[in-house]
């Protein structure tokens, strides 16, 4: 499916762009334009626009504001050594956006339209792409129910929007590694719920525990399963991996993707890249009690978070009630974490010939 985009060009404020490219703080400086596409159950997808980035009107009765019919994606455009721009695995993001929509009783945006929106965006704001390694144009496609009236049923009218912002590292790299706080009181997702969808409610429901984690001096919440409150699920917005030595072999362990865990594009990429580095990956349940024990006896060598915004980020500490467990050297990412991080960045910047299929030139 294709649509003809109506293009309304913004004035470029070069000083604002130069400052954004210098500072590279996450999400703080949207580029000049955004894309919008409307949906109505009687008309399907229509009215595709490139327009100046800025506020749009939302009626107070809009369903997204009351019943949370809202989903989003986070994805990245990287620069290559040859001066090109490439989107990292946009097909997987388009597919997940469709799955999230289906879970939330929203119309799945055709993948071709998702890609077209991305291409239109890159054609007007490609000059906002920063140039250093690890920097990118972070893209935020999202969709929400706009229909007026408060009756409780799925909306019949939606807006898709995509905007972008130049990004550097999500975490301050001088900090070295992240610390995570284990939430026992609150859960992020339960079986049969929306945990695997990238829907706004998952994030809103996580913020109280996040606030608690920060008050405990930590960067992120480490979520446990809803039933036993014993098995590691994910972090707030990132997946989690452990590097464990088992019978002399270094193994990468991560909880299996399920209906309570977001099936991260970076997670999947890390699993595939681990194979390139000769590492065996085990997708199996990880008990929090075992993590503390393995950290004590030295089997747990490294732990890291991964996600689109954060890339691969080392975890050096788990704070969990009376446990304050340190993993590896707190200030230095371990060898496996570093190797995976660098390999992923090499792929993202177009330096790995065997992984070029993951990149879509824009
Ligand atoms: C991303 O990694 O792109 C996300 O959407 C997570 C968000 C919490 C920053």
Q: Mind explaining what this structure looks like?
A:
It is a single chain. Strand 15 and strand 16 (311-320) form a beta hairpin. The chain is of the alpha+beta class and 362 residues long. The protein is 26% helix and 30% strand. The chain contains nine helices and 18 strands. The chain is globular. The mean pLDDT is 95. The chain binds 2-OXO-4-methylpentanoic acid. 2-OXO-4-methylpentanoic acid is lined by residues 74, 237, 307-309.
Secondary-structure map with pairings?
Blueprint lengths: L5 E2 L6 H10 L9 E8 L3 E9 L10 H5 L2 E3 L2 E5 L5 E4 L1 H14 L7 H15 L10 E10 L11 E11 L10 E6 L16 H5 L2 H9 L4 E5 L7 E4 L3 E8 L2 E6 L10 H12 L3 E4 L4 H10 L2 E8 L3 E10 L2 E4 L8 H14 L10 E3 L1
Parallel strand pairs: 1-3, 9-10, 9-16, 13-14
Antiparallel strand pairs: 2-3, 2-8, 4-7, 5-6, 5-7, 6-18, 7-8, 10-11, 12-13, 12-15, 15-16, 16-17
Helix pairs in contact: 3-4
2-OXO-4-methylpentanoic acid (COI) binds next to loops.
Enzyme class: transferase
InterPro entries: Aminotrans_IV (IPR001544), Aminotrans_IV_CS (IPR018300), Aminotransferase-like (IPR036038), B_amino_transII (IPR005786), BCAT-like_C (IPR043132), BCAT-like_N (IPR043131), BCAT_family (IPR033939)
GO molecular function: transaminase activity
